[in-house]
Amino acid sequence: MADGTAGQGDSAPVTAAEFGRAMAALDGFEPAPAVAVGLSGGGDSLALVLLMRHWVAERGGSLLTLTVDHGLRAESTDEASAIAQAMARLGVPHRVLRWEGEKPVAGLQAAAREARHRLLADACVEAGILHLALAHHRDDQAETVLLRLARGSGTDGLAGMAAVRADGAVRVIRPLLGFSHGRLLETCRAAGLDWIEDPSNRNPRFARARLRAARDVLGGEGLDADRLCEVARRAGRARAALEQATADLLAQAAVIHPEGWITLAPAPLFAAPEEIALRALAQALAAVGGAGPLRDEALARLLGSLAEGRGGTLGGCVVRLHRGAVMVAREPASVEHRLVSPGGRVLWDGRFDLRLSNRWEQPLEVRALGIAGWRERVGRSGHSRLSGLPALVRETLPSLWLGTEMLAIPMIGGAYGFCADGQAPADCAIFRPISLLGRPAFTVVSDRRGII
């Protein structure tokens, strides 16, 4: 582990009282909170552990530290071991999570970040922990805003990182966004602890490292961390207002169907300001299709096509008018196939929490029902409730196959079931998408008013 250097004006450690106020602003904690910290071994995350350990102990809660070994550097395993020893000395439970499999050549940092978040979230779910604390700080926020500004981001991007974000079953919190990197290092020094310096932080291959090298020049032009964080606060306030308006529109217009599709009432959708309508449409597409951010131009074309009575495909979804409503259904060609073992549980197609019963003797393939599956097995048996669904929705229902034989359609929301040989349905699939239609409002870090 190596020592580091604090920046100007960053000579004071973060106090327990300051950290307590930052945590209070995040709200939403149980009486005896269980919290996990993503611990890289750097000064920022180590300071977060020190502060969180005290905060949790005061409330009778528990703390688990999680380190992801990406395996990208030869010394990463030794570093993870050193972190584990440091946590043992502090008396803090610790786990090492390993990123297995092949690593991409292009977009390595983004892929590593995604793998890290996935491994951390899975570990939290396994441990029954709701809150995952990450050590992003004021300088990280400033770099994020600057990167997004360079890429031409709009209001959402310039709002930077959220202090609280729901990520599936895990609540990601960033209590250090109001504190500088220098103060966090001083917090470690005050406790007599050293930390690991990640060499990638200085590698000019990566955009963030190049920005750090240009920090003095940018600051001399007035583009310092304080100014960039002020941009994030202002953009965050605008984003929060837009998201609240979008939530109001969805509450008025959207219906979520247990078979994995959504309908939107056209009158309020088309009457809404274009920005709000586009956001509502994007959230419906994300919930059904699992798509990430979509280009504004593509969303605008789709909204215009719907207003003209047509529709289109976007984000893995088919969107069209159906019985007087805007139907957002999964695109059949985009549905995944996946093997599931007896008794297994998976998130199938990014939409369904699917559980396979133990009655099967071997792994089965979960795939879309399709036209052939409907005609050959279900259409003949007179399942009237399934028959009333739009054809597109029926065709993308999860079904269980062994080779070319369809064996069952897992029960959906307790309403449907088809099983071979007259057996009672014991398999279950519940529409529980990764991207929720109703999302918590974006939180804004403010020096004056805490978090709003």
UniProtKB/TrEMBL annotation:
GO terms for molecular function: ATP binding; tRNA(Ile)-lysidine synthase activity. ATP binds at S40, G41, G42, G43, D44, S45. The keyword ATP-binding applies. Residues 35-213 form the tRNA(Ile)-lysidine/2-thiocytidine synthase N-terminal domain. InterPro entries: Rossmann-like_a/b/a_fold, TilS/TtcA_N, tRNA_Ile_lys_synt, tRNA_Ile_lys_synt_N. Its EC number is 6.3.4.19. It is found in: Cytoplasm. GO terms for biological process: tRNA modification. Keywords: ATP-binding, Cytoplasm, Ligase, Nucleotide-binding, tRNA processing. This is tRNA(Ile)-lysidine synthase. It comes from Azospirillum humicireducens.
